[in-house]
Amino acid sequence: MEELKKYVSVKDEDRFYHQGAVELLVFNFLLILTILTIWLFKNHRFRFLHETGGAMLYGLVMGLIIRYATKASDVESGTVYECEKLTSGPPTLLINITNQVYEYQYKREISHHNVNGHQGNAMLQKMTFDLSIFFNILLPPIIFHAGYSLKKRHFFRNLGSILTYAFLGTAISCIVIGLITYGFVKAMVHIGQLKGWEFHFTDCLFFGSLMSATDPVTVLAIFHELHVDTDLYTLLFGESVLNDAVAIVLTYSISIYSPKENPNAFDAAAFFQSVGNFLGIFAGSFAMGSSYAVVTALISFTHLTKFTKLCEFPMLETGLFFLLSWSAFLSAEAAGLTGIVAVLFCGVTQAHYTYNNLSPDSKMRTKQLFEFMNFLAENVIFCYMGLALFTFQNHIFNPLFIFGGFVAVFVARACNIYPLSFLLNLGRKQKIPRNFQHMMMFSGLRGAIAFALAIRDTESQPKQMMFTTALLIVFFTVWVFGGGTTPMLTWLQIRVGVDPDEDLKAEATSQSASNLDKNTTKAESAWLFRIWYGFDHKYLKPILTHTGPPLTTTLPEWCNPVARLLTSPSAYGDQLKDDDTDYIINNDELTENYESSAHIPVQDRTGSTQATGKEDIHEGDLGLGGYKLQLEHTAGQPQINSLA
Amino acid sequence: MEELKKYVSVKDEDRFYHQGAVELLVFNFLLILTILTIWLFKNHRFRFLHETGGAMLYGLVMGLIIRYATKASDVESGTVYECEKLTSGPPTLLINITNQVYEYQYKREISHHNVNGHQGNAMLQKMTFDLSIFFNILLPPIIFHAGYSLKKRHFFRNLGSILTYAFLGTAISCIVIGLITYGFVKAMVHIGQLKGWEFHFTDCLFFGSLMSATDPVTVLAIFHELHVDTDLYTLLFGESVLNDAVAIVLTYSISIYSPKENPNAFDAAAFFQSVGNFLGIFAGSFAMGSSYAVVTALISFTHLTKFTKLCEFPMLETGLFFLLSWSAFLSAEAAGLTGIVAVLFCGVTQAHYTYNNLSPDSKMRTKQLFEFMNFLAENVIFCYMGLALFTFQNHIFNPLFIFGGFVAVFVARACNIYPLSFLLNLGRKQKIPRNFQHMMMFSGLRGAIAFALAIRDTESQPKQMMFTTALLIVFFTVWVFGGGTTPMLTWLQIRVGVDPDEDLKAEATSQSASNLDKNTTKAESAWLFRIWYGFDHKYLKPILTHTGPPLTTTLPEWCNPVARLLTSPSAYGDQLKDDDTDYIINNDELTENYESSAHIPVQDRTGSTQATGKEDIHEGDLGLGGYKLQLEHTAGQPQINSLA
């Protein structure tokens, strides 16, 4: 085939350890630089570069250096060897080279057109780390943290809107992006750019679905720092978290959509199968995630008489919490479901139930642990994205497709936000004002999930072109939109400096700052919320946590023996009141875990009821038959429930 | 060569993600099981199985299952293919198999005699995870935690003894084990068991050095739980931590010992080169580790007027602390030094300087983070050790060598502890009693480091036999000695239930419980300690932390301009007193970070001076020329420094 080449000897096994160390050191170095830069920026109150943007920038520079500074020193490979004896690639290959046996591990299948692209630069190869690390180790803590730190109260108040944006919005976005890029692809075919490529409408839809995952981590960080209006924050946060889940499952469903005949024609059977897949995978992942959380809640709740509670061993408790949450992700992946969706709902459920059972020590440990892991993983991922622009070997930069991609993404975002906001405002009593809509439109950043979905499959040429385009869109949105958040907030006259605790109370006294319609407010999707809340408060909370009324009072009388068995002994005593207060405190404490300032949650809660005057469901308003202590608890606060 | 074989298709790339998930899930499952078991055991106050022992047991069972339950389903490989075109193994190999290109990654070189041992069981292959993960990710947090949680005061009080055990003891242990196993090897050669093997005395010394790393994690956990005498605890902890470092560098020095001519003859030049290597690597790693810690201390201490301090951003601070500490390890590895030694001394230095500069939030975060990482990593490693017995492919069980190994390890431990204790007792005023010596002898468990050193090189047959033997010794010592700790403590009548805070105070009032010689106590190595302490207190502490006297008072007058520049502005004000009290609190708080009970450090500290009546150097006794506040600070406490 080709002449023999001399390769760097790889005899010294130690070299490999050291190389592993060098790679990690490069990442460490980039992260240290990022942290120092951010510190500098924070000192000067520069808000145009968030740490994720910084990490990406440094990654980019490092990628450039690795690409062009280390190239000369390495030998070029790219030689393909024949092996007629094999019919398929085995996981491990033993090769006899000059009387010495070497073991090789299967890495991947390569299309012929990618072979020449291989640079054989060892450093470059090493820096493009294993995708399984990316998916199994870096992503789960970020997603879990998002679920675990969800501002539950605000989230549920806006549940209807969030679900609409997440499900309907993602579907719209996917279809619009798909259609626009398909138009561009047709144009490219027309001018003869894509000769010999297979590029179907499903590929465009695939691109559409992966580009629909928004990741406004930068925006939300700035919102948080500036204390932007909580409702806007919640809408954006809720939307982005859920639409990641939707986009991931959608992408998977589209990638396994296989029409029988003409791949461009519509195949109803295959389409409905994909829809079925979507629903099945989503529901399955949801169930997997929540059930792990429920198991954790049950274990941490165990109150067998002979047993000391797990919460007396904070380390074991934290360990178990961590491992079970991670297992939710891994089990879902292993079962062919979507781990990210599972771990998201696991996080939400853990925060809702298990968190209440943890010891104070573990509460803080878990919060801080996941916060830290989120911080690190996020920066590593953004750093890696920066690196990928130069270290990924098979980029296909097609200006027309890139232009098409950008157009499609912005149009799709507009088609998602404005029409849906209009529809939602028909039903919502508390309208989503125009400036909020513009801000949501502007906050459609693409980040880790879009990148992750794009890099997962880069085998064919269309997929490589999509990956390149996705990467550029991520860069642009994170830097430009992320950096433009503060000016945009000013320009749109969105209220900042809202103390989350004072937020809604302030709204009641000074109506000038915000143009929300407050007098006719009524929690949207209140009926859905009410049903769920009642069930949760009456049955699930008492079974899974120490809070809520004793089951004996909520279950029908004939269930009493079972109820007594399931109820925590402590739920009967005078601990009741404390528990509930505790719950409220925890509830707020958890959701505001970035805050260091002290706050008075009970007052806040009542304050919110005062302020909006809406039928905000009160801890204890529902299903509290024989639960008289609750009244005492809220009695101290003035009640101005205007509509209730 | 051989006929074609059908292999499992590896086309579906997703399969690989899922498999990564399955592996991790297996480990998670084992760890969850371990935690639940330990919880159960703690409830019943069983102390015969520590979590590490439990993790190892479950790993063993899982290894058994993977080995024998999944074997049938997999295809057997072990076929060696010829490739005449290559002269050396390239890092990446592209192979054309039935017109499809596959990429293979270099894994390792295999000796011919190991080829047949390969089972080709994919699950088995996957479970024997990458050694670079083991070394770069799992080991550093354990070692760092050991350094970070060192009980500094007790450690320095016993510094002389600890250094003697660690350096001299490890050397003795290495030589004794080497000699005894060499005897056994000679016998094995005599009866014809090792035909065709190359087995030199240096190989035996290699085995001796790796088996000299003691890891009494189980014993120390039980000591801690039972509150065993602090001096015994410190001696064992200090010895094991330092002797790991010594053993690692020793092993490396021996492995690169290369006599020019006859490998069995003594080559003075090569020997001294090895000694030089040892000293160079040890000193280099020490310097690397401490300098990273000093950099961290300086960054966290920065007090430029324009800058807000880093400690106002606890997340950035924790992140930087974590990354710089890990970088110490990685840099040392990348530079060809010993990362574990570097990260150990980095931990000690971080605890000594940086810890004082951290915000209260970060103090807790870092402590809890490393405690948690230590917990997880330790259990993963022990779990992996259990697995390795069945998943490692090339075990060589040689009963005679195993017997020899056991004998050698016990004899060497005895030759280390008893003679050295005797010598130390000649110099020590506070003797090491016989029952302490027996307990130290008994606590010579082998663990993670011995395993890590043994698995690092398993290419030749002698090394494989050593690995197998080392693994069995680890199992035996962890289970039998670890489990026997509590009975042994009772049998040796060693005092338990000592409150660390009350410890030395109690000693003064009731002399019955311990047979330490108290009236003639004088801190051993006091002179060494004094010199270091004075320098540290006068110059290093003021430069690197907020504590200690202002540099202007400790440096000669002509240095005043420099001193003023380097001294923290806060060191001049009335904050001084608080700072110093703070330091003392931190000092104790850190060293007792497993304790949850409240304690009164100032009293404790004075208590200790009262109790032992030794020349324990007081915070403020040294070099405090113009530092009058210090006197006020200690004036409130009764001073009974009998000898000072």
UniProtKB/TrEMBL annotation, chains A, B:
<keyword id="KW-0813">Transport</keyword>
<feature type="transmembrane region" description="Helical">
    <location>
        <begin position="335"/>
        <end position="355"/>
    </location>
</feature>
<dbReference type="GO" id="GO:0051453">
    <property type="term" value="P:regulation of intracellular pH"/>
</dbReference>
<keyword id="KW-0915">Sodium</keyword>
<keyword id="KW-0406">Ion transport</keyword>
<feature type="transmembrane region" description="Helical">
    <location>
        <begin position="20"/>
        <end position="41"/>
    </location>
</feature>
<keyword id="KW-0050">Antiport</keyword>
<feature type="transmembrane region" description="Helical">
    <location>
        <begin position="278"/>
        <end position="301"/>
    </location>
</feature>
<dbReference type="InterPro" id="IPR006153">
    <property type="entry name" value="Cation/H_exchanger_TM"/>
</dbReference>
<feature type="transmembrane region" description="Helical">
    <location>
        <begin position="400"/>
        <end position="424"/>
    </location>
</feature>
<feature type="transmembrane region" description="Helical">
    <location>
        <begin position="375"/>
        <end position="394"/>
    </location>
</feature>
<feature type="transmembrane region" description="Helical">
    <location>
        <begin position="436"/>
        <end position="455"/>
    </location>
</feature>
<keyword id="KW-0967">Endosome</keyword>
<dbReference type="GO" id="GO:0055038">
    <property type="term" value="C:recycling endosome membrane"/>
</dbReference>
<feature type="transmembrane region" description="Helical">
    <location>
        <begin position="131"/>
        <end position="150"/>
    </location>
</feature>
<dbReference type="GO" id="GO:0015386">
    <property type="term" value="F:potassium:proton antiporter activity"/>
</dbReference>
<feature type="transmembrane region" description="Helical">
    <location>
        <begin position="235"/>
        <end position="258"/>
    </location>
</feature>
<feature type="transmembrane region" description="Helical">
    <location>
        <begin position="467"/>
        <end position="485"/>
    </location>
</feature>
<dbReference type="GO" id="GO:0098719">
    <property type="term" value="P:sodium ion import across plasma membrane"/>
</dbReference>
<feature type="transmembrane region" description="Helical">
    <location>
        <begin position="53"/>
        <end position="70"/>
    </location>
</feature>
<dbReference type="GO" id="GO:0005886">
    <property type="term" value="C:plasma membrane"/>
</dbReference>
<keyword id="KW-0472">Membrane</keyword>
<dbReference type="InterPro" id="IPR018422">
    <property type="entry name" value="Cation/H_exchanger_CPA1"/>
</dbReference>
<feature type="transmembrane region" description="Helical">
    <location>
        <begin position="162"/>
        <end position="185"/>
    </location>
</feature>
<feature type="domain" description="Cation/H+ exchanger transmembrane">
    <location>
        <begin position="33"/>
        <end position="491"/>
    </location>
</feature>
<dbReference type="GO" id="GO:0015385">
    <property type="term" value="F:sodium:proton antiporter activity"/>
</dbReference>
<feature type="region of interest" description="Disordered">
    <location>
        <begin position="594"/>
        <end position="617"/>
    </location>
</feature>
<keyword id="KW-1133">Transmembrane helix</keyword>
<protein>
    <recommendedName>
        <fullName>Sodium/hydrogen exchanger</fullName>
    </recommendedName>
</protein>
<comment type="similarity">
    <text>Belongs to the monovalent cation:proton antiporter 1 (CPA1) transporter (TC 2.A.36) family.</text>
</comment>
<keyword id="KW-1003">Cell membrane</keyword>
<dbReference type="InterPro" id="IPR004709">
    <property type="entry name" value="NaH_exchanger"/>
</dbReference>
<keyword id="KW-0812">Transmembrane</keyword>
<keyword id="KW-0739">Sodium transport</keyword>
<dbReference type="InterPro" id="IPR002090">
    <property type="entry name" value="NHE-6/7/9"/>
</dbReference>
<dbReference type="Pfam" id="PF00999">
    <property type="entry name" value="Na_H_Exchanger"/>
</dbReference>
